Amino acid sequence: MTPHVQRGIAQEMAPDVFRLELPTPFNVGPVNVYLVKGEKLTLIDVGPLTEEAWQALTNGLSSIGMSIEQIEQIVLTHHHVDHCGLLERVRQISGAKTLAHPLAAPYIELDEEFMDFHDRFFTDLYKQSGVPQEKMYIIQRFHQLMKTFSETSRIDVHLKHEQTVPHLSQWQVMYTPGHSQSHLSLYRASDRVMIGGDHIIKRISSNAFIEPPRDRSSVRPLTLVQYRTALQMCADMDIEQVLSGHGEPVLDHRELILARLRKNWERTDTLRRLLGDGEKTAYELTALLFPTLYEKELPLTISETLGHIDLLTILHQVDVREQEGVLYYSV
């Protein structure tokens, strides 16, 4: 069993790869960031914009004789604030370049035009889902989250699927969308190690968050379908360990992925049974699927519900009716 990481002390996980555990103010708990000693000293993710995370990051680097000033490049697995919030602070001190998927850019840059589009997208989505008007505040809560735990920064280099990571010649980029549209994992074939961000986590199943489409005139991405496809891609790979964004490494990735996919279908079956009692909106289904969680974590739970509706739609196992802009589902 891998020993627990002590806060503020970096732990070697693989040759030239060190894990640093940083605290977060979120329910997910601490986040893992990784230092990779390649041709350039590379930090994978940076943690949220809090003083506690900053102190843990600097202490962790110091424990292996390193400092923020020595970081030469930063790779982001995805754009969520628990992974990218300290980006600009690290850049300002180190001068490091940022590498990430291009779809992370509008979130990292806090692009105002994109954020307006983001708000319109979710206003329409939640109305269609039957979310009550008094709960629409969750859209603004997202903005508050971004402004509190991250700050405007930039991406210098865009990464794409199967390319070699610049200045990390042993590492290959894997595009693993689903949890976010910008999600990347890194794979090193020589020792079969994957730095997996939030794609594969041992103790929790990553949520496939609904996000706006990359082409603003197109339909939204089917995030749960994407997530399942990316998991299946990884199941076919020869991976010794997945170094995750949260918690301990995954040493049995195929078994874990199979269990997640199976549980995924079980929830889809549950949703279909709920629809057997009569037509319902996505919001009503969310309340039934997650009765103790949906009010507290509505964006997360409604994303999950819509993902399973997407699966049923692909299988032609659900009918949809629109009334006054609200979608009602039935079987």
TrEMBL record:
Coiled-coil segments: none
Residue stretches making up the Metallo-beta-lactamase domain: 30-246
GO molecular function: hydrolase activity
This protein's UniProt keywords: Hydrolase
One Pfam family cited in the UniProt record for this chain: Lactamase_B
UniProt signal peptide: none
Catalytic activity: 3',5'-cyclic UMP + H2O = UMP + H(+); 3',5'-cyclic CMP + H2O = CMP + H(+)
InterPro entries the UniProt entry points to: Metallo-B-lactamas (IPR001279), RibonucZ/Hydroxyglut_hydro (IPR036866), Sec-metab_biosynth-thioest (IPR050662)
Record's function text: Counteracts the endogenous Pycsar antiviral defense system. Phosphodiesterase that enables metal-dependent hydrolysis of host cyclic nucleotide Pycsar defense signals such as cCMP and cUMP.
PANTHER family (UniProt xref): ENDORIBONUCLEASE LACTB2, METALLO-BETA-LACTAMASE SUPERFAMILY POTEIN
Protein name stated in the entry: Hydrolase glyoxylase
Organism expressing this protein natively: Brevibacillus choshinensis
